[in-house]
């Protein structure tokens, strides 16, 4: 399957590694900075005949790829995705799928019209720990779900933001909740039933006076099934990333997944006693080298299978929209100072430009 990657920055090594492990034919790499492409070719010892582009339109026209991964700055995801869909390409779009609900809806609509597969890259859904927890949810082992919490306690400093001017801007990125925390926010919504009734949120910029957006956010979420969710996300933790954790509490079960990227099961208790907690913790935990985890490779495998079989991927564009919507709802509540009902209407990160000026 002919594959190209658009965007060769921070997350691109995970995409290239996943493409190689799934035996895709990498025919082109694209980035506005040629040195980023060359760095990846050297790092992965790729065939130097792989075509290099600074214009993705040219790459799409010449390479005719079957699968495209988009790993650019977030604010460009939607426009590039729509061009790829128009060219008949299947897509993997790094999170967030877009920065506005209108753009997310357009991606979903156009993909259906063209009959192409679009996957939102929320790769933590493929963590061994997360898959085991999801199995318990689908088996109704928790019984009535009471509430869940997502904690993202990370560090990002001046060096991180200064390397790419788009980071920490409303136009191209969003803040800590949209960039660093959206993976765990996605998991929380997915595990607690997906259908959100209302959100109450607060955000602030506490430690990064050189960015436009929030570096701290908290929220209370009420789900239509009666469960509640709590989000706490920040890039203010001293001196380095501390943890990303997901708790789920039900009438007959308690689970905690922690580690760098919810990759370690730290608590596993169920009334049905179907398994031995210590064995589950051992078997369904791993320790990835960074917060990106090991999820890209199985995500790619699933997308390839979806394309070949003509079915939806495990993580759809609609799932990407739901994660985006929840972050935007927190932003909207924080700005307005009250409860926000879902589904949201038209909403974009640009609606909050100037909030912390």
Structure description:
This protein has 357 residues and is an alpha/beta fold. The protein folds into two domains: 2-124 and 296-314, Rossmann fold (3-Layer(aba) Sandwich), CATH 3.40.50; 126-289 and 322-349, Dihydrodipicolinate Reductase, domain 2. It is 34% helix and 23% strand. It contains twelve helices and 14 strands. The longest helix is centred in the C-terminal third of the chain and has 20 residues, at 317-336.
End-to-end separation in angstroms reads 48 Å
Task: Kindly give the count of domains.
Answer: 2
% residues in beta strands:
15-25%
Determine the structural class based on helices, strands and strand pairing.
alpha/beta
CATH class of the largest domain: Alpha Beta
Radius of gyration, Cα only, in angstroms? 20 Å
CATH superfamily of the largest domain: Dihydrodipicolinate Reductase, domain 2
Examine the secondary-structure arrangement and name the CATH architecture of the largest domain.
2-Layer Sandwich
Largest sheet, strands/sense/barrel: 8 strands, mixed
Give, in order, the helices and strands: EHEHEHEHEHEHEHHHEEEEEEHHHE
User: Can you count the helices?
Assistant: 12
Q: Order of strands across the biggest sheet?
A: 13-12-11-7-10-9-8-14
Q: Tally of extended strands?
A: 14
Q: Which geometry do the CA atoms define?
A: globular
Report low-confidence residues grouped into runs of 5 or more: none
């Amino acid at each position: 399957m002919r594959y190209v990657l658009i965007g060769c920055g921070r997350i691109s090594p995970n995409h290239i590694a996943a493409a190689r492990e799934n035996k895709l034919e990498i025919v082109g790499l694209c980035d506005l900075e040629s040195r980023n492409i060359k760095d990846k070719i050297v790092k992965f010892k790729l065939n130097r005949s792989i075509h290099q582009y600074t214009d993705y339109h040219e790459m799409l026209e010449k390479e005719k790829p079957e699968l495209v991964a988009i790993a650019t700055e977030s604010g460009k995801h939607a426009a590039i995705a729509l061009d790829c869909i128009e060219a008949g390409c299947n897509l993997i779009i790094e999170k967030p799928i877009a920065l506005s609900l209108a753009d997310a809806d357009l991606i979903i609509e156009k993909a259906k019209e063209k009959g192409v597969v679009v996957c939102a890259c929320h790769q933590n859904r493929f963590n061994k720990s997360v898959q085991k927890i999801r199995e318990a949810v689908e088996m109704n082992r928790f019984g009535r779900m009471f509430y869940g919490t997502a904690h993202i306690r990370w560090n990002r400093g001046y060096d991180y933001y200064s390397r790419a001017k788009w980071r920490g801007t409303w136009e191209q990125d969003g803040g800590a909740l949209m960039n660093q925390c959206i993976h765990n926010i996605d998991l929380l919504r997915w595990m607690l039933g997906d259908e959100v009734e209302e959100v109450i949120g607060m955000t602030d910029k506490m430690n990064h006076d050189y960015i436009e957006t929030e570096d701290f956010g908290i929220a209370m979420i009420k789900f239509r099934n009666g469960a509640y969710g709590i989000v706490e996300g920040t890039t203010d933790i001293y001196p380095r990333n501390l943890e990303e954790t997901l708790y789920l509490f039900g009438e007959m079960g308690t689970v905690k997944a922690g580690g760098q990227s919810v990759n370690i099961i730290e608590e596993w208790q169920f009334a049905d006693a179907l398994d031995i907690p210590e064995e589950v913790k051992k078997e369904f935990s791993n320790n990835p080298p960074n917060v990106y985890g090991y999820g890209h490779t199985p995500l790619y495998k699933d997308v390839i299978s979806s394309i070949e079989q003509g079915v939806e991927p495990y993580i759809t564009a609609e799932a990407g929209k739901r994660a985006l919507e929840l972050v935007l709802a927190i932003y909207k509540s924080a700005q307005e100072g009250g409860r926000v009902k879902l589904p949201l209407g038209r909403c974009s990160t640009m609606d909050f430009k100037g909030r912390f000026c």
